[in-house]
Specification:
The protein is an alpha+beta fold. About 20% of the residues lie in helices and about 25% in strands.
Length: about 800
C-alpha cells in the first residue's frame, strides 16, 4: 500500500512538472534566461522576460507588419507602453530574427540573415544570465548575481523611478506619436553641467530651447551631471532643476518621457483602467519648443497652442506642422513691399543685424534695402531694432514685449494685419494637467532667524562694505592684467590654473599644431577626457578683446563648432581648453600626398561642406553676438570619428556687436589663399569675409588640392586672388553649359569618377558665388545651408 502511494505521488508530481513545462514553453515567458538560449520572432510577441512583480515585460515588440524591436514595456498599461528599446532605429525582420544569449556571455539581437543588430558586448566579463528586475531594468549578471550590464545605462526616451541619467547618457524623443524611431529632440547634460533640451532636425540648424533665456541657473554653484526620478514622483537634476508630479506620493507607477513634440512630461498610471495621465510637465508654454510649428509660421495661444501660417504662406504638410509653411504658388515676385505688424511676437535667431537705438521707420527702410531681410523686430519701449533673415520658431507672447513687422509684397496682402487663423485645424493642441512651476531648490526662509540675527548681520555688513572698498581700491592699483574669472563664470566655463594645465598636458609635451594665434597641445583631464589646450600668443595688449571673446564663446553651442570647455587667465598666461576632435584637421586628410589617410569619399566631402556651412551660419546669424571667424581654412576645420566637421580656432575670432553691421580691424587677419579682397581695402569687415574663405574651401574640397598651390611659390596674395578669380571665371562658363563631362577632369582624380554630378555642380556654383570680388554679391551662409540641404537625399 505504501509503495502504491509513493508511485501515485511521483506520477502526479511528474504530470504537474510536465504541464508546467508545456505552459512555460507555450507562453515563452521567463524570470531569467541563461547562456545558450535563443528565442525567435517566430515565437510571437509574448514576453520573453517578466519582472518578478509582473510590472514589466521584455520581448519582441511589433512596429510594422513584418518588423520588430527588442523592447521593455509596462505590463499593466492598457496598451503596450514602451519604456526602453534596444534597436529603435533598426527593426529586425519578423521572419527568423532572434535574440540569442551567446555561450560567450553576450546578449545579441540577430536579424534574419544573422547580422548582429544590437549587443550588450558582455562576452569578455563572465556574464551568466539575463533578468528583468522589478524596476524595469534589463540586467546581465555574473554567476554571483552581480550586475554587469543594465538597460538603465542606455535609456531611449524614458526614465523610470530609481533610474538616473549622467553625462554620458541622454534621452532622445520618438519621431512621431506611436513610433519608436529617434526624433528631433534631445535631453542631456552639456559640458557645463546644465540640463538642456535641444532641437536638431536634418533640414534645420540645431538650437537649444531649454533652459530658456529667463530660466538659466548657470550661476548656481555645486552642480553635477546627474538627474533622476524618485519613487515619489520628484525629478531632480544636479543643476538644481526640480519638478514634481501633481500626485506626489508612493505606490504610483510613473515614467518620465521626452515626447515626440519636444516636451519632457511625467506620466502616472491608473492601475484600474490601465491608462496614463500627465502629472507633470517641464515646459508649460508649449510655444517655447523649437520646431513645433516650423518655418514661416506662428505658434499662438487661442487659448490652446495653435500653429498658423504667416500671410502669403500655406502649410507644407497639414499632417505635420513641424515642416512649417511654404510660399503660396500664386505669390508674385515684387519689389513693392509693405510691412504688417505682428504685436507681441518674436522669431528665434537668424538676426541679420542689431541696433541698440533706432527709429522704427529707419529700421524698416534698412530692411527694404536688404534683399535678405524678411522682417524687423522691435523691443517695446527700448528702441532696440533687429532684422530677420529667416522666420523660424515664431511665437506669440501672452505678455507682449516684442513686435515683429513682416515684409510682404503689397499685391499679396489684402489686409493690413495677420488674420487670426491662416489655416484650418491644428495638431498642436494639447490637454494637459500641468505640473507645479519649475523650482530651484532652496531652504525655506524662516522669519524667526531673521529677527534674531538682523542686528548682528547689519553690523557685519557695514564692516564688510568698508573692507570691500579698501580691497577694491588696492585691486585697482595692481599692475597685473585683470583676472577674468568672475566674468566668465556666467559664460559657464571651467577655470583652470596654469599648473593644472601643465599637468593636463604633461608640461605641454605633445604639440598638435600651431598657427598665428598660438600653439595647441594635447591633454587629458582628471576625468580622462581628452582635450586640446591652446596657448594664445601676444595676448597682453589684447586683454579686453580676450575678455569680450570669452564672454560670448562660453555661450556658443553647435554640433559643427568646437566646444570650448575652459580657460586660464593667470598673470600673462592666456589659454583655452577645448574638446579634442579625433581625426584632426581637414587639410591632413584632403591634401594627403603621403597616402597616410584614406581618400575622402564624395559623400564625406559633401557632408563636410554642409557641416561647415551650418557652423558658419550659426556664428554669423544665431549667436547672442554675431561672430566673424576671420580665418576659415582646412586647418581650422576638424573632423571627428564620423568625419563630421567642427570649426575651430577662436584665437582670431572677431565679434560683431549687435549695434553694428561691420567692424574695422586694425590689421589683416587670416591665411594666404583664403583672405577676402576687402581686407586690403581698409573697409569694415563683415561675415562676407568668411563667405569668401568658405568658397575657397569648397573649391578645394571638390578639387582635392589647394587653390594657392597653382600659384608660383613666393608670389603675393594678389596672385592668389587672381588664381581664385581665374577659377571662378572659368567655372562660370562651364557651369552655364549643358555638358557636364568637364566635371570628371575638375573633380579630384582620386575619386575615379565616383561622385554625384549634380552635387558637384552645385558645390562649384556656390563656390563661384562665394568668391565674388564684390562682397555684396556673395550669398549669406543661411542661404548656402538651404541650397546644400536641397540636394541631400
Amino acid at each position: 500500500m505504501a509503495m502504491g502511494q509513493v508511485f501515485m505521488f511521483n506520477a502526479a508530481l511528474l504530470s504537474f512538472l510536465l504541464m508546467s513545462y508545456t505552459a512555460l514553453a507555450n507562453n515563452q515567458s521567463y524570470l531569467a534566461i541563461a547562456r545558450g538560449s535563443s528565442i525567435s520572432t517566430r515565437d510571437g510577441t509574448a514576453p520573453i522576460l517578466v519582472s518578478p512583480n509582473g510590472a514589466f515585460s521584455c520581448g519582441f515588440y511589433k512596429v510594422a507588419t513584418n518588423a520588430f524591436t527588442f523592447s521593455i514595456w509596462f505590463s499593466r498599461s492598457a496598451e503596450k507602453t514602451v519604456a526602453w528599446t534596444a534597436n529603435r532605429d533598426a527593426p529586425v525582420n519578423g521572419n527568423g530574427s532572434r535574440i540569442v544569449f551567446q555561450k560567450s556571455g553576450s546578449l545579441d539581437l540577430l536579424d534574419y540573415d544573422g547580422t548582429v543588430v544590437w549587443s550588450t558586448n558582455t562576452a569578455a566579463i563572465h556574464a551568466d544570465s539575463a533578468a528583468l528586475l522589478d524596476t524595469g531594468s534589463l540586467v546581465i549578471k555574473d554567476q554571483g548575481g552581480n550586475p554587469l550590464w543594465s538597460s538603465f545605462n542606455s535609456p531611449t526616451d524614458t526614465l523610470l523611478p530609481s533610474q538616473s541619467m549622467a553625462s554620458n547618457t541622454r534621452l532622445v524623443s520618438a519621431s512621431a506619436k506611436g513610433l519608436l524611431s529617434s526624433g528631433f529632440y534631445t535631453f542631456y547634460f552639456d559640458s557645463n553641467y546644465t540640463s538642456s533640451l535641444i532641437y536638431n532636425r536634418k533640414n534645420e540648424i540645431s538650437t537649444t530651447y531649454w533652459p530658456t533665456h529667463n530660466r538659466s541657473w548657470a550661476n548656481n554653484g555645486n552642480r553635477n551631471q546627474y538627474c533622476g526620478l524618485d519613487s515619489k514622483g520628484a525629478f531632480v537634476a544636479g543643476d538644481q532643476l526640480k519638478f514634481e508630479a501633481s500626485d506626489l506620493g508612493d505606490d504610483i507607477m510613473r515614467r518620465l518621457t521626452l515626447d515626440y513634440d519636444g516636451n519632457l512630461r511625467m506620466y502616472s498610471l491608473n492601475m484600474m483602467t490601465g491608462s496614463w495621465s500627465i502629472s507633470g510637465v517641464l515646459l508649460a508654454r508649449l510655444c517655447e519648443i523649437h520646431g513645433l510649428c516650423g518655418r514661416n509660421s506662428l505658434c499662438r495661444y487661442t487659448p490652446e497652442p495653435e500653429c498658423s501660417c504667416l500671410e502669403g504662406f500655406e502649410v507644407t504638410q497639414p499632417s505635420d506642422w513641424s515642416k512649417g509653411c511654404k510660399r503660396k504658388r500664386n505669390s508674385v515676385a515684387s519689389n513693392d513691399f509693405i510691412f504688417t505688424e505682428l504685436p507681441g511676437t518674436d522669431f528665434w535667431g537668424y538676426e541679420l543685424n542689431y541696433n541698440m537705438s533706432m527709429p522704427l521707420q529707419k529700421c524698416i527702410k534698412m530692411c527694404l534695402e536688404d534683399g535678405d531681410c524678411q522682417a524687423v523686430g522691435v523691443r517695446g519701449g527700448t528702441g532696440q531694432c533687429y532684422r530677420k533673415t529667416l522666420l523660424f520658431s515664431g511665437k506669440e507672447f501672452p505678455e507682449p514685449y516684442n513686435d515683429i513687422y513682416m515684409k510682404v509684397p503689397r499685391a499679396a496682402l489684402p489686409l493690413p494685419k495677420l488674420p487670426s487663423s491662416s489655416t484650418q485645424g491644428h495638431v498642436c493642441k494639447f490637454t494637459e494637467k500641468m505640473a507645479p512651476p519649475i523650482q530651484i531648490s532652496q531652504k525655506k526662509f524662516k522669519f524667526g532667524y531673521f529677527l534674531t540675527s538682523a542686528l548682528t548681520l547689519l553690523a557685519v555688513e557695514v564692516t564688510l562694505i568698508f573692507i570691500g572698498f579698501w580691497v577694491l581700491h588696492k585691486w585697482k592699483r595692481r599692475p597685473e592684467p585683470t583676472d577674468v574669472g568672475s566674468m566668465i563664470i556666467y559664460g559657464q566655463f571651467c577655470r583652470f590654473s596654469y599648473r593644472e594645465l601643465q599637468e593636463v598636458t604633461n608640461c605641454f609635451h605633445e604639440e598638435m599644431g600651431r598657427g598665428g594665434s598660438g600653439v595647441v597641445y594635447k591633454g587629458v583631464l582628471t576625468d580622462e577626457r581628452k582635450v586640446a589646450v591652446k596657448k594664445l600668443s601676444d595676448m597682453i595688449q589684447g586683454e579686453q578683446e580676450f575678455r569680450s571673446e570669452l564672454s560670448v564663446i562660453g555661450r556658443i553651442y553647435h554640433m559643427n563648432v568646437v566646444r570650448i570647455w575652459g580657460f586660464c587667465a593667470e598673470k600673462t598666461h592666456r589659454l583655452l581648453v577645448s574638446e579634442f576632435v579625433e581625426k584632426g584637421s581637414l587639410d591632413r586628410v584632403l591634401f594627403d600626398n603621403l597616402n597616410l589617410y584614406p581618400v575622402l569619399q564624395w559623400s564625406q566631402r559633401y557632408n563636410i561642406a554642409l557641416g561647415v556651412a551650418k557652423g558658419l551660419a550659426y556664428l554669423h546669424h544665431e549667436c547672442l553676438e554675431w561672430i566673424v571667424h576671420c580665418d576659415v581654412k582646412p586647418e581650422n576645420i576638424l573632423l571627428d570619428e564620423e568625419f563630421e566637421p567642427k570649426i575651430a580656432d577662436f584665437g582670431l575670432v572677431k565679434l560683431l556687436g549687435r549695434g553694428a553691421g561691420a567692424q574695422m580691424l586694425s590689421r589683416v587677419h587670416g591665411t594666404r589663399g583664403y583672405i577676402a579682397p576687402e581686407w586690403a581695402l581698409n573697409i569694415p569687415i563683415t561675415g562676407k569675409a568668411d563667405v569668401y574663405s568658405y568658397g575657397v574651401v569648397l573649391l578645394e574640397l571638390v578639387m582635392g588640392t589647394r587653390v594657392s598651390s597653382q600659384v608660383v611659390q613666393g608670389e603675393g596674395e594678389v596672385e592668389v586672388e587672381m588664381a581664385v578669380g581665374h577659377y571662378a571665371k572659368t567655372l562660370k562658363k562651364k557651369l552655364a553649359s549643358k555638358d557636364q563631362s568637364w566635371l570628371l577632369e575638375f573633380v579630384d582624380c582620386r575619386l575615379s569618377g565616383e561622385f554625384d554630378y549634380v552635387q558637384a555642380a552645385m558645390m562649384l556654383k556656390i563656390a563661384v558665388s562665394c568668391v565674388e570680388e564684390e562682397r555684396g554679391r556673395r550669398p549669406n551662409m543661411s542661404y548656402v545651408v538651404e541650397t546644400l540641404l536641397s540636394l541631400v537625399e
